[in-house]
């Protein structure tokens, strides 16, 4: 990739949604080949309606580059092919005065291909890199994907749990938040005993009865 020095900080971005529902994204940071989880970030997609990976990528990269407290990476990687890479490249040119940042796209191999592909700006064909370098970039991409999927699953589950709790009379947003925080999953709420609900600080005995008998 013709870098002037060995890259230390690599950031990778990935989107996650199901049919445009609950869209989120992630950033993972690797320093000298190791994950730095303290610098991982989750993003709620705020400006995009429906399943538009390009627009979602534009939003999260804009928000990332607008944060002056984060040092710029040696390599900024987006999960996707030439389309996502073009979005990243255009944003970097617009935002950074001195755009010497290395930006790459990583695309999964097709059925007839032997390995994943690495794309660089202004090049239509993928570039060849060493197997060790490709394995590292794949590992970083997979970690970004895992982190995004995990966040998407939690967001979807929280919304579904909240929707079910909406049907309980007399249980408003504050009590719903207490239940979600305490039990986590709707299955745990359904299987809880009366005393489990009564033990929650902020839930009265009358409210505990309403919740318990709603599911039993």
UniProtKB/TrEMBL annotation:
GO cellular component: excinuclease repair complex
Gene Ontology biological process terms, A to Z: DNA damage response
GO molecular function list: excinuclease ABC activity
Pfam families for this protein: HHH_5, UvrC_RNaseH_dom
Chain ranges of the UvrC family homology region profile domain: 1-92
Name this polypeptide is given: UvrC family homology region profile domain-containing protein
Organism of derivation: Candidatus Magnetoglobus multicellularis str. Araruama
């Amino acid at each position: 990739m013709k870098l002037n020095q060995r890259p230390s900080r690599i950031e990778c971005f990935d989107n996650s949604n199901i049919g445009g529902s609950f869209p989120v994204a992630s950033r993972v940071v690797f320093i000298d080949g190791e994950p730095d989880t303290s610098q991982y970030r989750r993003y709620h997609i705020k400006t995009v309606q429906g399943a538009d990976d390009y627009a979602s990528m534009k939003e999260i990269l804009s928000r990332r580059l607008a944060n002056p407290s984060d040092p710029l990476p040696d390599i900024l990687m987006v999960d996707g092919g030439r389309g996502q890479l073009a979005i990243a490249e255009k944003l970097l040119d617009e935002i950074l005065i001195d755009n010497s940042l290395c930006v790459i796209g990583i695309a999964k191999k097709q059925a007839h291909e032997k390995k994943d592909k690495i794309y660089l700006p202004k090049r239509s064909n993928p570039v060849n890199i060493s197997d060790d370098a490709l394995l590292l970039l794949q590992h970083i991409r997979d970690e970004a994907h895992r982190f995004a999927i995990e966040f998407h699953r939690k967001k979807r589950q929280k919304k579904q749990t909240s929707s079910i709790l909406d049907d309980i009379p007399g249980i408003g947003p504050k009590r719903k938040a207490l239940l979600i925080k305490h039990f986590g999953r709707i299955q745990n709420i359904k299987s809880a005993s009366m005393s489990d609900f009564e033990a929650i600080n902020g839930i009265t005995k009358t409210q505990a009865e309403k919740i318990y008998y709603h599911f039993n």
